[in-house]
Protein backbone atom coordinates (compact mmCIF):
# COMPACT_ATOMS: atom_id res chain seq x y z
CA UNK A 1 0.00 0.00 0.00
CA UNK A 2 1.15 3.54 -0.69
CA UNK A 3 -0.20 6.90 0.33
CA UNK A 4 -0.53 10.46 -0.92
CA UNK A 5 -0.76 13.45 1.41
CA UNK A 6 -2.89 16.25 -0.01
CA UNK A 7 -1.18 19.64 -0.07
CA UNK A 8 -2.69 23.14 0.07
CA UNK A 9 -2.92 23.70 -3.67
CA UNK A 10 -5.12 20.61 -4.15
CA UNK A 11 -7.45 21.18 -1.20
CA UNK A 12 -11.17 21.63 -1.86
CA UNK A 13 -11.36 19.35 -4.90
CA UNK A 14 -13.54 16.28 -5.39
CA UNK A 15 -11.53 13.13 -4.79
CA UNK A 16 -12.48 11.54 -8.13
CA UNK A 17 -11.53 14.64 -10.16
CA UNK A 18 -8.23 14.99 -8.32
CA UNK A 19 -7.29 11.35 -8.99
CA UNK A 20 -8.42 11.45 -12.64
CA UNK A 21 -6.40 14.57 -13.36
CA UNK A 22 -3.27 13.44 -11.51
CA UNK A 23 -3.30 9.88 -12.87
CA UNK A 24 -4.72 9.98 -16.45
CA UNK A 25 -3.40 6.49 -17.28
CA UNK A 26 -5.65 4.97 -14.61
CA UNK A 27 -8.98 6.07 -16.09
CA UNK A 28 -12.14 7.21 -14.38
CA UNK A 29 -13.88 3.84 -14.59
CA UNK A 30 -11.04 2.06 -12.81
CA UNK A 31 -10.82 4.80 -10.18
CA UNK A 32 -14.55 4.38 -9.42
CA UNK A 33 -14.12 0.59 -9.27
CA UNK A 34 -11.24 0.91 -6.80
CA UNK A 35 -13.34 3.29 -4.69
CA UNK A 36 -16.31 0.88 -4.66
CA UNK A 37 -14.09 -2.01 -3.63
CA UNK A 38 -12.38 0.15 -0.94
CA UNK A 39 -8.97 -0.18 -2.58
CA UNK A 40 -8.75 3.62 -2.46
CA UNK A 41 -9.49 5.11 0.97
CA UNK A 42 -9.44 8.58 2.47
CA UNK A 43 -7.92 8.96 5.93
CA UNK A 44 -8.32 5.22 6.49
CA UNK A 45 -12.06 5.20 5.80
CA UNK A 46 -14.19 4.31 2.82
CA UNK A 47 -14.26 7.21 0.34
CA UNK A 48 -16.75 8.42 -2.25
CA UNK A 49 -15.72 10.04 -5.50
CA UNK A 50 -17.66 13.14 -4.45
CA UNK A 51 -15.70 13.49 -1.19
CA UNK A 52 -13.93 16.84 -0.89
CA UNK A 53 -10.26 16.58 0.02
CA UNK A 54 -8.51 18.92 2.46
CA UNK A 55 -4.89 19.84 3.09
CA UNK A 56 -3.22 17.08 5.10
CA UNK A 57 -5.73 14.38 4.10
CA UNK A 58 -4.14 11.00 3.34
CA UNK A 59 -5.28 9.08 0.27
CA UNK A 60 -4.43 5.39 0.64
CA UNK A 61 -3.88 3.19 -2.42
CA UNK A 62 -4.44 -0.33 -1.07
CA UNK A 63 -3.11 -1.98 -4.21
CA UNK A 64 -0.09 -4.01 -5.23
CA UNK A 65 3.13 -2.14 -5.92
CA UNK A 66 3.05 -3.30 -9.58
CA UNK A 67 -0.45 -1.87 -10.03
CA UNK A 68 0.53 1.41 -8.38
CA UNK A 69 3.69 1.71 -10.49
CA UNK A 70 1.79 1.05 -13.72
CA UNK A 71 -1.41 3.04 -13.17
CA UNK A 72 -0.41 5.64 -10.58
CA UNK A 73 3.22 6.19 -11.48
CA UNK A 74 4.74 4.92 -8.22
CA UNK A 75 3.41 7.71 -6.00
CA UNK A 76 3.94 8.35 -2.29
CA UNK A 77 5.92 6.35 0.23
CA UNK A 78 5.51 2.64 0.92
CA UNK A 79 3.52 2.09 4.08
CA UNK A 80 2.83 -1.65 4.14
CA UNK A 81 -0.59 -3.28 4.26
CA UNK A 82 -2.82 -5.51 2.18
CA UNK A 83 -2.24 -6.12 -1.50
CA UNK A 84 -5.21 -5.87 -3.87
CA UNK A 85 -6.04 -8.96 -5.92
CA UNK A 86 -6.65 -6.71 -8.92
CA UNK A 87 -3.73 -5.95 -11.20
CA UNK A 88 -3.48 -4.62 -14.76
CA UNK A 89 -4.42 -7.29 -17.27
CA UNK A 90 -6.14 -9.44 -14.65
CA UNK A 91 -9.02 -7.17 -13.68
CA UNK A 92 -12.33 -8.96 -13.36
CA UNK A 93 -13.24 -10.43 -16.73
CA UNK A 94 -10.07 -9.31 -18.52
CA UNK A 95 -7.95 -11.84 -20.45
CA UNK A 96 -4.75 -12.69 -18.57
CA UNK A 97 -1.57 -11.52 -20.25
CA UNK A 98 2.07 -11.81 -19.18
CA UNK A 99 2.25 -8.02 -19.29
CA UNK A 100 -0.01 -5.45 -20.93
CA UNK A 101 1.55 -2.34 -22.45
CA UNK A 102 0.64 0.99 -20.93
CA UNK A 103 -2.29 2.93 -22.34
CA UNK A 104 -0.05 5.63 -23.83
CA UNK A 105 1.92 2.96 -25.72
CA UNK A 106 -1.09 1.83 -27.76
CA UNK A 107 -3.37 4.86 -28.08
CA UNK A 108 -4.37 8.37 -27.08
CA UNK A 109 -7.81 8.94 -25.57
CA UNK A 110 -9.66 11.45 -27.76
CA UNK A 111 -12.95 11.33 -25.84
CA UNK A 112 -14.30 9.46 -22.82
CA UNK A 113 -17.50 9.43 -20.80
CA UNK A 114 -19.25 6.81 -18.68
CA UNK A 115 -20.43 4.88 -21.79
CA UNK A 116 -17.78 5.12 -24.49
CA UNK A 117 -14.16 5.80 -25.32
CA UNK A 118 -12.94 7.12 -28.66
CA UNK A 119 -9.24 6.27 -28.96
CA UNK A 120 -6.55 7.16 -31.49
CA UNK A 121 -4.78 3.83 -32.16
CA UNK A 122 -1.06 3.78 -32.84
CA UNK A 123 0.61 1.91 -35.70
CA UNK A 124 1.57 -1.72 -35.06
CA UNK A 125 -1.26 -2.31 -32.58
CA UNK A 126 -3.99 -4.89 -33.19
CA UNK A 127 -7.57 -3.70 -32.68
CA UNK A 128 -8.55 -7.13 -31.34
CA UNK A 129 -6.31 -10.12 -30.83
CA UNK A 130 -6.19 -12.77 -33.55
CA UNK A 131 -4.56 -15.44 -31.36
CA UNK A 132 -4.85 -16.17 -27.64
CA UNK A 133 -1.30 -14.97 -27.00
CA UNK A 134 -1.82 -11.63 -28.80
CA UNK A 135 -2.11 -8.29 -27.04
CA UNK A 136 -4.45 -5.73 -28.57
CA UNK A 137 -5.97 -2.32 -27.99
CA UNK A 138 -9.12 -4.08 -26.85
CA UNK A 139 -7.35 -5.78 -23.91
CA UNK A 140 -5.56 -2.59 -22.87
CA UNK A 141 -8.78 -0.56 -22.88
CA UNK A 142 -10.57 -3.38 -21.05
CA UNK A 143 -7.95 -3.26 -18.30
CA UNK A 144 -8.08 0.55 -18.27
CA UNK A 145 -11.85 0.39 -17.66
CA UNK A 146 -11.59 -2.26 -14.95
CA UNK A 147 -12.78 -5.35 -16.85
CA UNK A 148 -16.26 -6.83 -16.91
CA UNK A 149 -18.96 -4.55 -15.51
CA UNK A 150 -21.03 -5.40 -12.46
CA UNK A 151 -23.93 -6.30 -14.78
CA UNK A 152 -21.70 -8.88 -16.52
CA UNK A 153 -21.08 -6.92 -19.75
CA UNK A 154 -17.61 -7.19 -21.28
CA UNK A 155 -16.53 -3.79 -22.70
CA UNK A 156 -15.17 -4.03 -26.24
CA UNK A 157 -14.16 -2.17 -29.39
CA UNK A 158 -16.99 -1.54 -31.86
CA UNK A 159 -14.94 -1.13 -35.04
CA UNK A 160 -11.58 -2.36 -36.23
CA UNK A 161 -8.56 -1.00 -38.05
CA UNK A 162 -5.73 -2.95 -39.69
CA UNK A 163 -2.70 -3.38 -37.43
CA UNK A 164 -0.68 -0.70 -39.25
CA UNK A 165 -3.54 1.71 -39.88
CA UNK A 166 -3.69 4.45 -37.28
CA UNK A 167 -6.63 6.48 -36.01
CA UNK A 168 -10.02 6.42 -34.40
CA UNK A 169 -11.56 3.37 -32.78
CA UNK A 170 -14.73 3.45 -30.69
CA UNK A 171 -14.96 1.36 -27.52
CA UNK A 172 -18.19 0.66 -25.60
CA UNK A 173 -18.01 0.53 -21.80
CA UNK A 174 -21.69 -0.41 -21.31
CA UNK A 175 -24.12 -2.73 -23.06
CA UNK A 176 -26.57 0.03 -24.18
CA UNK A 177 -23.64 1.96 -25.68
CA UNK A 178 -22.34 -1.14 -27.49
CA UNK A 179 -25.76 -1.86 -28.93
CA UNK A 180 -26.25 1.71 -30.19
CA UNK A 181 -22.73 2.21 -31.53
CA UNK A 182 -22.91 -1.10 -33.39
CA UNK A 183 -26.25 -0.11 -34.90
CA UNK A 184 -25.01 3.32 -35.98
CA UNK A 185 -21.89 1.85 -37.58
CA UNK A 186 -23.78 -0.99 -39.26
CA UNK A 187 -26.42 1.37 -40.66
CA UNK A 188 -23.68 3.78 -41.84
CA UNK A 189 -25.27 6.58 -39.84
CA UNK A 190 -21.78 7.66 -38.73
CA UNK A 191 -19.61 9.38 -41.32
CA UNK A 192 -16.05 8.03 -41.39
CA UNK A 193 -13.17 9.91 -43.01
CA UNK A 194 -9.58 8.81 -43.52
CA UNK A 195 -6.38 10.53 -44.61
CA UNK A 196 -4.08 8.63 -46.96
CA UNK A 197 -0.81 9.37 -48.74
CA UNK A 198 -0.95 7.99 -52.28
CA UNK A 199 1.17 8.02 -55.41
CA UNK A 200 0.21 10.45 -58.18
CA UNK A 201 -2.43 13.16 -58.52
CA UNK A 202 -6.07 12.47 -57.69
CA UNK A 203 -9.19 14.48 -58.39
CA UNK A 204 -12.40 14.48 -56.36
CA UNK A 205 -14.56 11.45 -57.11
CA UNK A 206 -17.09 9.06 -55.65
CA UNK A 207 -16.76 5.56 -57.06
CA UNK A 208 -18.54 2.23 -56.80
CA UNK A 209 -16.97 -1.17 -57.41
CA UNK A 210 -17.17 -4.76 -56.19
CA UNK A 211 -14.80 -6.48 -53.80
CA UNK A 212 -14.01 -10.16 -53.59
CA UNK A 213 -12.05 -11.53 -50.64
CA UNK A 214 -9.70 -14.51 -50.71
CA UNK A 215 -9.84 -15.91 -47.16
CA UNK A 216 -6.73 -18.05 -47.69
CA UNK A 217 -4.28 -15.13 -47.91
CA UNK A 218 -6.45 -12.35 -46.46
CA UNK A 219 -6.28 -10.41 -49.72
CA UNK A 220 -9.04 -8.76 -51.71
CA UNK A 221 -9.57 -8.11 -55.42
CA UNK A 222 -11.46 -5.11 -56.82
CA UNK A 223 -13.81 -5.69 -59.75
CA UNK A 224 -15.66 -3.27 -62.04
CA UNK A 225 -18.64 -5.62 -62.33
CA UNK A 226 -20.79 -7.74 -60.07
CA UNK A 227 -20.09 -11.45 -59.80
CA UNK A 228 -20.90 -14.26 -57.33
CA UNK A 229 -19.12 -13.85 -54.02
CA UNK A 230 -18.30 -10.17 -54.55
CA UNK A 231 -19.78 -7.36 -52.43
CA UNK A 232 -20.56 -3.81 -53.47
CA UNK A 233 -18.29 -1.04 -52.20
CA UNK A 234 -18.43 2.74 -52.45
CA UNK A 235 -15.67 5.21 -51.63
CA UNK A 236 -15.23 8.98 -52.02
CA UNK A 237 -11.91 10.80 -52.55
CA UNK A 238 -10.89 14.46 -52.29
CA UNK A 239 -7.34 15.82 -52.75
CA UNK A 240 -5.89 17.84 -49.87
CA UNK A 241 -2.32 18.58 -50.92
CA UNK A 242 0.26 17.35 -53.45
CA UNK A 243 4.06 17.47 -53.21
CA UNK A 244 7.07 16.31 -55.20
CA UNK A 245 9.44 14.00 -53.34
CA UNK A 246 12.40 12.19 -54.86
CA UNK A 247 11.13 12.81 -58.37
CA UNK A 248 7.63 11.43 -57.79
CA UNK A 249 4.34 13.14 -57.02
CA UNK A 250 2.66 12.21 -53.73
CA UNK A 251 -0.82 13.29 -52.67
CA UNK A 252 -2.50 13.59 -49.30
CA UNK A 253 -6.17 12.74 -49.84
CA UNK A 254 -9.28 12.68 -47.68
CA UNK A 255 -11.27 9.48 -48.07
CA UNK A 256 -14.97 9.09 -47.26
CA UNK A 257 -15.86 5.51 -46.48
CA UNK A 258 -19.45 4.82 -47.48
CA UNK A 259 -19.13 1.05 -47.07
CA UNK A 260 -16.72 -0.69 -44.72
CA UNK A 261 -15.15 -3.83 -46.18
CA UNK A 262 -11.85 -5.57 -45.52
CA UNK A 263 -8.95 -3.57 -47.08
CA UNK A 264 -11.50 -1.53 -49.05
CA UNK A 265 -9.55 1.74 -49.16
CA UNK A 266 -6.14 0.12 -49.67
CA UNK A 267 -7.24 -2.20 -52.48
CA UNK A 268 -9.51 0.33 -54.19
CA UNK A 269 -6.77 2.98 -54.38
CA UNK A 270 -4.32 0.43 -55.77
CA UNK A 271 -6.91 -0.61 -58.37
CA UNK A 272 -7.26 3.05 -59.40
CA UNK A 273 -3.48 3.32 -59.92
CA UNK A 274 -2.85 5.34 -56.76
CA UNK A 275 -1.53 2.86 -54.17
CA UNK A 276 -1.05 4.01 -50.59
CA UNK A 277 2.56 4.76 -49.72
CA UNK A 278 4.06 1.99 -47.57
CA UNK A 279 1.32 -0.57 -48.21
CA UNK A 280 3.08 -3.98 -48.18
CA UNK A 281 0.14 -5.83 -49.73
CA UNK A 282 -1.27 -3.52 -52.40
CA UNK A 283 1.48 -0.92 -52.82
CA UNK A 284 4.62 -0.25 -54.90
CA UNK A 285 7.28 -2.19 -52.97
CA UNK A 286 10.28 -0.83 -54.87
CA UNK A 287 9.28 2.81 -54.35
CA UNK A 288 8.34 2.08 -50.73
CA UNK A 289 11.83 0.68 -50.01
CA UNK A 290 13.28 4.04 -51.04
CA UNK A 291 10.96 5.99 -48.72
CA UNK A 292 11.69 3.56 -45.90
CA UNK A 293 15.41 4.25 -46.27
CA UNK A 294 14.97 8.02 -46.61
CA UNK A 295 12.22 8.76 -44.09
CA UNK A 296 11.78 5.59 -42.03
CA UNK A 297 8.25 5.00 -43.35
CA UNK A 298 7.54 1.34 -42.68
CA UNK A 299 3.74 1.01 -42.81
CA UNK A 300 0.82 2.03 -45.00
CA UNK A 301 0.13 5.76 -44.56
CA UNK A 302 -3.57 5.43 -43.83
CA UNK A 303 -5.15 7.20 -40.88
CA UNK A 304 -8.75 7.05 -39.60
CA UNK A 305 -9.02 10.81 -39.20
CA UNK A 306 -12.60 11.82 -38.40
CA UNK A 307 -15.77 10.26 -37.02
CA UNK A 308 -18.97 12.29 -37.37
CA UNK A 309 -21.91 11.25 -35.23
CA UNK A 310 -25.38 11.78 -36.74
CA UNK A 311 -27.47 14.73 -35.59
CA UNK A 312 -30.61 12.58 -35.47
CA UNK A 313 -31.48 8.96 -34.82
CA UNK A 314 -29.50 8.47 -31.60
CA UNK A 315 -31.68 7.01 -28.86
CA UNK A 316 -29.32 6.35 -25.94
CA UNK A 317 -26.09 8.27 -26.54
CA UNK A 318 -27.96 11.52 -27.19
CA UNK A 319 -25.12 13.68 -25.84
CA UNK A 320 -23.04 12.55 -28.83
CA UNK A 321 -25.54 13.84 -31.42
CA UNK A 322 -23.74 15.93 -34.03
CA UNK A 323 -20.31 15.53 -32.40
CA UNK A 324 -17.16 15.17 -34.49
CA UNK A 325 -14.08 13.33 -33.21
CA UNK A 326 -10.71 13.93 -34.85
CA UNK A 327 -7.32 12.21 -34.54
CA UNK A 328 -4.14 14.23 -35.01
CA UNK A 329 -1.99 13.41 -38.04
CA UNK A 330 0.61 10.76 -37.02
CA UNK A 331 4.31 11.57 -37.09
CA UNK A 332 5.21 9.49 -40.17
CA UNK A 333 2.59 11.32 -42.27
CA UNK A 334 3.79 14.66 -40.89
CA UNK A 335 7.26 13.93 -42.29
CA UNK A 336 5.76 14.39 -45.73
CA UNK A 337 2.83 16.71 -45.11
CA UNK A 338 3.40 18.24 -41.67
Give the arrangement of secondary structure elements:
Elements: E1 2-5, H1 15-22, H2 28-36, E2 40-42, E3 45-46, E4 58-61, H3 65-71, E5 77-78, H4 103-106, E6 107-112, E7 116-121, H5 137-145, E8 156-157, E9 166-172, H6 175-186, E10 191-199, E11 205-214, E12 219-223, E13 231-245, E14 248-257, H7 264-271, H8 285-295, E15 302-308, E16 324-326, H9 331-337
Parallel strand pairs: 9-15
Antiparallel strand pairs: 1-4, 1-5, 2-3, 2-4, 6-7, 7-9, 8-9, 10-14, 10-15, 11-12, 11-13, 13-14, 15-16
Task: Provide keyphrases for this structure.
elongated, Pseudouridine synthase, alpha+beta, eleven-stranded mixed sheet, Structural Genomics Hypothetical 15.5 Kd Protein In mrcA-pckA Intergenic Region, Chain A, five-stranded antiparallel sheet, 338 residues
Please characterize this protein's 3D structure.
This protein is of the alpha+beta class and 338 residues long. The chain has 3 domains: 2-78, RNA-binding S4 domain (Structural Genomics Hypothetical 15.5 Kd Protein In mrcA-pckA Intergenic Region, Chain A); 89-187, Pseudouridine synthase, CATH 3.30.2350.10; 192-306, Pseudouridine synthase (2-Layer Sandwich). Helix content is 22%, strand content 28%. The chain is built from 9 helices and 16 strands. The protein has helices at 15-22, 28-36, 65-71, 103-106, 137-145, 175-186, 264-271, 285-295, 331-337; strands spanning 2-5, 40-42, 45-46, 58-61, 77-78, 107-112, 116-121, 156-157, 166-172, 191-199, 205-214, 219-223, 231-245, 248-257, 302-308, 324-326. The strands form 2 sheets. Strands 6, 7, 8, 9, 10, 11, 12, 13, 14, 15 and 16 form an 11-stranded mixed sheet that branches. The longest helix has 12 residues, at 175-186. The protein is elongated, with a radius of gyration of 23 Å. The two termini are 46 Å apart. 36% of the residues are buried.
Amino acid sequence: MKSITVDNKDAGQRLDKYLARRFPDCGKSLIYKFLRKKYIRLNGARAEGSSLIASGDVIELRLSDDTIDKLFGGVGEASGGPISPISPGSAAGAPRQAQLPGLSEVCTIVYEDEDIIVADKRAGVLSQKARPEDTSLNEVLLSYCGGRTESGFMPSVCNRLDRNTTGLISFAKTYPAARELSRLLHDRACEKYYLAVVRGDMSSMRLSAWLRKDERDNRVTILDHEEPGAVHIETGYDPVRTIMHGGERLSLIRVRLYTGRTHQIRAHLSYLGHPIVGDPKYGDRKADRRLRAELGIDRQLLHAYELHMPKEGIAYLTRLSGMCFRAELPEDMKRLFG
